Amino acid sequence: MHVTHLTLQNFRNYASADLDLAPGVRIFEGVNGQGKTNLIEAIAYLSTLRSHRVSSDSALVKFGEDSAVVRAELAHGPRTLSIDVEIAKSGSNRARVSGHPVRARELPRYFNTVVFAPEDLALVRGEPAQRRAFIDSLLATHAPRLAEVITNYERVLKQRNSLLRSAKARKVSDAMLGTLEVWNDQLISLGTEIIAARLALVTRLRPHLAQSYRALVAADHGAGMTMRVSALADAKNLMDEDGAGGEIDTELTVDEIRQQFAQRLADARSREFERGTTLVGPHRDDVTFWLNDLPARITASQGESWSFALSLKLAAAQLVREESRTGDPVLILDDVFAELDGERRSRLAAAVESYEQVLITCAVLADLPKELWTRTIRISAGRILGTQEECDADESAE
After folding, report:
1. How many structural domains is the chain composed of?
2. Does 31 appear as a known binding residue?
3. Residue 251 has what pLDDT?
4. I need a labelling partner for 335 at 20 to 30 A (CA). Which of 56, 173, 252, 352 fits?
5. Model pTM greater than 0.85?
């Protein structure tokens, strides 16, 4: 699938914008702060209803306005459709597909993007929450219903933690303990589904990660990934005091996950009452990335970490390509080439050229392989100036 036309109203620094896009690689070029990333952020937002840069939608609405509109015309083979979102500065957003209102979680069924941005270096070097968010976002792309499961799990977790905090404050009652069992049942049911889905996803993603890393670095470096699951405790999966799980690289049935989760939760009860918080469950899990059988977070250099994070997103794009009914995702690379040496720039360009549509931002054309220079769209001060050829023609006319 690819975007054929993008329309913006009051989005970031764009009062209004209209842009025709063709399949293949397209470059948004301009000095920093002109609005290049805002364009690709708008496109990515349509597939997830969230920004990869900020946590609040209010930052997406142009200053002084109450709402913003992002609309895209899409094509997948002979099929065409439109997707649009009205982003409210306060209140609920509204999403539509070909003019018909839809729920936000349904959008991944129609349109997928995979974004790599400089912030994604945190996937390798950052906190577990960032890696969980990456896995869960990819889960929602493949099975939108899982987004609701994760939301419900977080709701149950919040209620259970509130009860544990009350217990810690010495306000325990038999009724309170009975209520805790009710929350336990829901936590285990929802958490088991999330854990099983995450483990299955990591298993499918792992070979793509290894292949993408080899293609990018052109060396025999082994890149891998495993889940650390707090709810799975056995002789081969010892837990530390903080609840971080051991590496899981074997297949477990849903019943096995549920049974071990329940046992682990029971074992942790006294510590949970002491701390007033839930110590076991998907909210405490992590993903370990491996480079040559060593944890990448600890041993990878800055350049290796950058290449690893990029390879992870390329692996995600390949997985979406294989499993999505809408074909290729729109692959978005935000300011990535500047951090790569010449050889890896060329290898990255070769790795993405087969995708139906690739959108790239850059501040300096010299950072890109020369064969991409003619595919440039210039951006300046919230205005789309046109393609390189159009801008050159205008300058010649003047």
Report:
1. 2
2. yes
3. 74
4. 56
5. yes
